Amino acid sequence: MRALLVVNPAATTTSARVRDVISTALASDLKLDVATTEYRGHARDLARRAAEGGEVGLVVALGGDGTVNEVVNGLLHHGPDPEALPQLAVVPGGSTNVFARALGLPNDAVEATGALLDAMREGASRTVGLGLVSGTPGTEDEGVPPRWFTFCAGLGFDAGVVGRVEQQRELGKRSTHALYLRQVARQFLADPHRRHGTISLQRPDGEPVSGLAMAIICNTSPWTYLGNRPVYASPGASFDTALDLLGVTKMSMASATRYSAQLLRSTPERGPHGKNALALHDLTDFTLQSQAALPFQVDGDHLGLRTSATFTGVRRALRVIV
Question: Quick one: how far is CA 223 from the chain centroid?
């Protein structure tokens, strides 16, 4: 099989030597081409060309969740077609690697490569569902290009934290869980909308919900990891269903402390809950609109401020080696 290995040289947890070991191992079983990303969006462009060329049967993403997201968006540029598009494989190289770990892969890049080679020799793969977010018709965000996501998106508080972390990384700070927790505290103190939510949820088959201060959309579970600890915002989310949503209508000091503790104690059976929490499962189509422009993120990538976003859960969108 001809394959393309897309390498992010800035991946947090791999070195040049490790990347050489991985490419050598993959080349022993594949007709391998290796491409190193050089700019933001380059992984997307490389994957799109691989999908359009028709000769590549597998694209391997070596990097963090941002690299994986770009590769997925490149593969699905013309829409999902699991039987015709190249398959996807992921070698975790970032600080968190939610998508790879949610697939059950080891969090070590070399171990994950070994697991992928075993899966390829056995012909093991699965088709996963993905999320798609696009601009909402009739709003100022109508023309925003659609974006696929693999594990989560967020509007409001959670996305504000992601934006703060990105700012710190641009200043040279390492992406660590301690850095993330500091930005959670800073976002809480600075967020003007956490007490009186501005987000409303609209869906074709349910009553509208208003007054959300934060909305987290999950395509799988766990939502993220703190070190080796999985965190479950929507425990029922799965690659085999559509999208789950966790909304919070009020974030006072007491409620924020309570929900933070619930997240840290969350399990595959139980996530955050309470009178100010909204948990919805297996949503195929819905729209979030906000009275104020709020931070927005997709797969941990901060995309600026948005007042609206329309979401679609697409089952069986892409075939993945695992």
Answer: 9
Please give the DSSP secondary-structure letter assigned to residue 254.
H
- Which percentage of the chain shows pLDDT scores above 90? 79
- Would the pTM count as exceeding 0.90? yes
Are 247 and 214 contacting, i.e. CB atoms less than 8 angstroms apart? yes
Domain range list for the chain: 2-123, 131-316
3-state helix, strand, coil in the chain (%, to 5): 30, 35, 35
Q: Which band of pLDDT confidence, cut at 50, 70 and 90, is reported for residue 109?
A: very high
Separation between Cα atoms, residue 143 and residue 259, nearest integer Å: 35
d(C-alpha 238, C-alpha 155), whole Å: 20
Tens digit of pLDDT for each residue in 225-270? 988 899 999 999 999 999 999 999 888 888 888 888 999 899 999 9
When mean pLDDT is compared across 106-120, 126-140, 175-189, 192-206, the lowest value belongs to 175-189
CB 1 within 8 A of CB 26: no
Closest of 236, 181, 245 to residue 216, by C-alpha:
245
Kindly report, residue by residue over 303-320, the tens digit of the pLDDT: 999 999 999 999 999 999
- Amino acid at position 154, single letter: G
Which residue from 140, 163, 187 is spatially nearest to 309, judged by alpha carbons?
140
Gap between the Cα atoms of 148 and 181, Å rounded? 27
Q: Note the CATH number of domain 2-123.
A: 3.40.50.10330
Rounded distance, CA 321 to CA 126, Å? 7
Residues 6+ apart with CB under 8 A from 13: 92, 93, 94, 95, 109
* CA-based nearest residue to 131, from 70, 64, 219, 67: 219
> For strand 285-298 and strand 199-203, is the pairing parallel, antiparallel, or unpaired?
antiparallel
Query: Considering the domain 131-316 in this protein, what is its CATH number?
Result: 2.60.200.40
Residue found under tokens 């020799």: 121
